[in-house]
């Protein structure tokens, strides 16, 4: 296709503002999906995505659209909508010349959308502002058109009004995509360069790599090279999705399509990497490629220890389709054998644990999420700690923690309560701006460690669900952090160690000792439960010794009752863990960790 007749765009929207519905309607109106084949939410493939209504993996669809007698090829590139996937979003945006900014006409813009809009503006994309769901009685398009216009410039009248549900305004939107978004430009005679904006594992076909052609061309049967690793692969198939994968004779400048090489692991085909040809390789890779780093770590343990091999195989399998998943084996006194797993963020953690439980039928316990601390010890060594129980002992010169820049959008009435929350989480206010008349954007820097722990839940409950949140990494910063250990009769319970700010150490110690006191059954002897920083005890509770044996209260009378009690005890025994001399049912650890 002549690049003059190509338009590459994506849709930037908040979860639930109707991106999938609008995309479906576009597929239908352009005729690439017949009404009969129309499956709801065609683009969302995974079950979890559909159930939770979130889009994790992006893909691309080609649709024809005619304007003034000319036919154009529109490539719609789907972008993930959540905060953990900023890097993937940035690569999807880099594959486009324009973006539809889609906002629910009853809700207005949200923090994540704003963050992605800024990313799109940084990438010089042409923005088409659109209000969706105008069929809703609660829609207030006049108000939000003003908000959008003041945000990106332009007149409120230029903000399109559509309904993905009824199809109203969608044809006009497609016309505008053709009219406003610039066509791609590139050098057809230069060495081939194509950017990978997505890489999806398919059980039958192996890895499917989605690319946007920048220069040159790719043809079937060519040998391609990945510029980051120099690895060479044979191209088995090349094509476009429309929306089913359709092989083509090749891809030229500006086109969007997929490649299949028989590679079995998405790590060999990384998002952001540049594809070139082995015969005439390009010298410079396209800018913007990085290896996404895990930000949040958690120990994952099977509740039934014999499930460990299943967990290992499950992680190996998930890794094929998730290049950002990292793990290594770990053992814990309290929880047995498991893995320390690195995630891009909290949602990523949630998705992975949910997939493990659902697709592999595993019962898992996850330790409290931790971030990456850098600890400088006396001998000037810097140790990276992602598991609090591995915090170095001895004299520490400095501890630093990852920081994030946080953006919060909320109605102005909640500003006070949000500021209070952010301050209690060691946030430093960077700025505050009004968006329209009654909504405010607050910007903070905050330790990531303060966010991974129920920050979002608190934010939502303090604002009746009206606040939305976005964050991006912002380097490491030194802080007065200490490790708090929890001891049972003097023995450390590794899964409960936590790295916290010195001012919060006492509160953590009290919380955990009180929680464990309620959960640990009485033993033959008194069991002290302590919280300590190094050798210094900061909180203490104890479980008193058992006075009589369990059978005493049966008065020796009812024999069946006695037997039942003994059997129950035996059953309980199997799941007991020994911490020093203390027997603790595994359920107690699990309950203490999950805070129930
Ligand atoms: P993610 O896939 O989670 O990003 O969500 P989404 O933005 O794709 O939203 P989706 O299309 O799933 O729509 C969210 C909800 O809004 C669904 O219940 C839709 O039926 C509804 N919805 C979408 N578009 C419209 C619209 O134009 N009018 C009305 N009334 N409802 C709509």
TrEMBL record:
A single MF term (Gene Ontology): GTP binding
Pfam family, one: GTP_EFTU
Subcellular location per the Swiss-Prot or TrEMBL entry: Cell membrane
Entry EC number(s): 3.6.5.n1
SUPFAM superfamilies for the chain: EF-G C-terminal domain-like, P-loop containing nucleoside triphosphate hydrolases, Translation proteins
Record keywords, A-Z: Cell membrane, GTP-binding, Hydrolase, Membrane, Nucleotide-binding, Protein biosynthesis
Domain of life of the source: Bacteria
Family annotation (InterPro entries): EF-4 (IPR006297), EFG_III/V (IPR035647), EFG_V-like (IPR000640), G_TR_CS (IPR031157), LepA_C_sf (IPR038363), LepA_CTD (IPR013842), LepA_IV (IPR035654), P-loop_NTPase (IPR027417)
A biological process term (GO) from this entry: positive regulation of translation
GO cellular component, one term: plasma membrane
Catalysed reaction equations from the record: GTP + H2O = GDP + phosphate + H(+)
Keyword Glycoprotein carried by entry: no
Topology term for the membrane: Peripheral membrane protein
Sequence ranges assigned to domain Tr-type G in this UniProt record: 4-185
First-tier enzyme category under EC: hydrolase
Binding site for GTP: 16-21, 132-135
Signal peptide positions (record): none
Family: Belongs to the TRAFAC class translation factor GTPase superfamily. Classic translation factor GTPase family. LepA subfamily. Belongs to the GTP-binding elongation factor family. LepA subfamily.
Protein task: Required for accurate and efficient protein synthesis under certain stress conditions. May act as a fidelity factor of the translation reaction, by catalyzing a one-codon backward translocation of tRNAs on improperly translocated ribosomes. Back-translocation proceeds from a post-translocation (POST) complex to a pre-translocation (PRE) complex, thus giving elongation factor G a second chance to translocate the tRNAs correctly. Binds to ribosomes in a GTP-dependent manner.
NCBIfam families, per the entry: lepA, small_GTP
PANTHER family per UniProt: TRANSLATION FACTOR GUF1 HOMOLOG, CHLOROPLASTIC, TRANSLATION FACTOR GUF1-RELATED
HAMAP family, sorted: LepA
Protein's UniProt name: Elongation factor 4
Upper taxonomic lineage: Bacteria, Bacillati, Actinomycetota, Actinomycetes, Micrococcales
Gene transcribed to yield this protein: lepA
């Amino acid at each position: 296709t002549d690049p003059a007749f190509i338009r590459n765009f994506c849709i930037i929207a908040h979860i639930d503002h109707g991106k999938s519905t609008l995309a479906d309607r576009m597929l239908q109106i352009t005729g690439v999906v017949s009404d009969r084949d129309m499956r709801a939410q065609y683009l969302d493939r995974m079950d979890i995505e559909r159930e939770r209504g979130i889009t994790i993996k992006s893909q691309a669809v080609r649709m024809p659209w005619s304007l003034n007698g000319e036919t154009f090829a529109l490539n719609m590139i789907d972008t993930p909508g959540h905060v953990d996937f900023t890097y993937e979003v940035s690569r999807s945006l880099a594959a486009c010349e324009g973006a539809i900014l889609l906002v629910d006409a009853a809700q207005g813009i949200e923090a994540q959308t704003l963050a992605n809009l800024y990313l799109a503006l940084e990438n010089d994309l042409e923005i088409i502002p659109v209000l969706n769901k105008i069929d809703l009685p609660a829609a207030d398009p006049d108000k939000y058109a003003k908000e959008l216009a003041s945000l990106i410039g332009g007149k409120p009248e230029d903000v399109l009004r559509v309904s993905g549900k009824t199809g109203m305004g969608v044809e006009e939107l497609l016309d505008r995509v053709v009219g406003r978004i610039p066509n791609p430009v590139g050098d057809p005679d230069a060495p081939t360069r194509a950017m990978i904006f997505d890489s999806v594992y398919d059980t039958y076909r192996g890895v499917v790599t989605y690319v946007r052609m920048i220069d040159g061309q790719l043809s079937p049967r060519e040998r391609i090279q990945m510029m980051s690793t120099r690895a060479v692969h044979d191209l088995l198939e090349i094509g476009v999705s429309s929306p089913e994968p359709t092989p083509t004779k090749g891809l030229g400048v500006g086109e969007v399509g997929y490649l299949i090489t028989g590679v079995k692991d998405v790590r060999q085909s990384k998002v952001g990497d540049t594809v070139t040809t082995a015969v005439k390789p390009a010298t410079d890779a396209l800018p913007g490629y990085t290896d996404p780093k895990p930000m949040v770590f958690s120990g994952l343990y099977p509740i039934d220890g014999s499930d460990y091999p299943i967990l290992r195989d499950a992680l190996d399998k998930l890794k094929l389709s998730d290049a950002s998943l990292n793990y290594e084996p770990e053992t814990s006194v309290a929880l047995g054998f498991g893995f320390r797993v690195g995630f891009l963020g909290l949602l990523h953690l949630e998705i992975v644990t949910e997939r493990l439980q659902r697709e592999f039928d595993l019962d898992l316990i996850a330790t409290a999420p931790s971030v990456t601390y850098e600890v400088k010890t006396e001998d000037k060594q810097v140790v990276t700690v992602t598991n609090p129980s591995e915090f170095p002992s001895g004299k520490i010169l400095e501890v630093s923690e990852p920081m994030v820049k946080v953006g919060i959008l909320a109605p102005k009435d909640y500003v006070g309560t949000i500021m209070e929350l952010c301050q209690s989480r060691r946030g430093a206010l960077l700025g505050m701006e009004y968006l329209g008349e009654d909504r405010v954007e607050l910007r903070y820097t905050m330790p990531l460690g303060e966010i991974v722990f129920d920050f979002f839940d608190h934010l939502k409950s303090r604002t009746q669900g009206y606040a939305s949140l976005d964050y991006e990494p912002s380097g490491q910063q030194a802080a007065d952090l200490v490790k708090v250990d929890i001891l049972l009769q003097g023995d450390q319970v590794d899964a409960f160690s936590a790295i916290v700010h010195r001012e919060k150490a006492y509160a953590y110690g009290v919380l955990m000792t009180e929680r464990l006191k309620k959960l640990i059954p009485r033993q033959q002897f008194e069991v002290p439960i302590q919280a300590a920083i190094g050798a210094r005890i900061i909180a203490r509770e104890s479980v008193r010794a058992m006075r009589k044996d369990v059978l005493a209260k049966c008065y020796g009378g009812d024999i069946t009752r006695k037997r039942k009690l003994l059997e129950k005890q035996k059953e309980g025994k199997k799941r007991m863990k020994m911490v020093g001399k203390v027997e603790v049912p595994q359920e107690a650890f699990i309950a203490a960790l999950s805070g129930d």
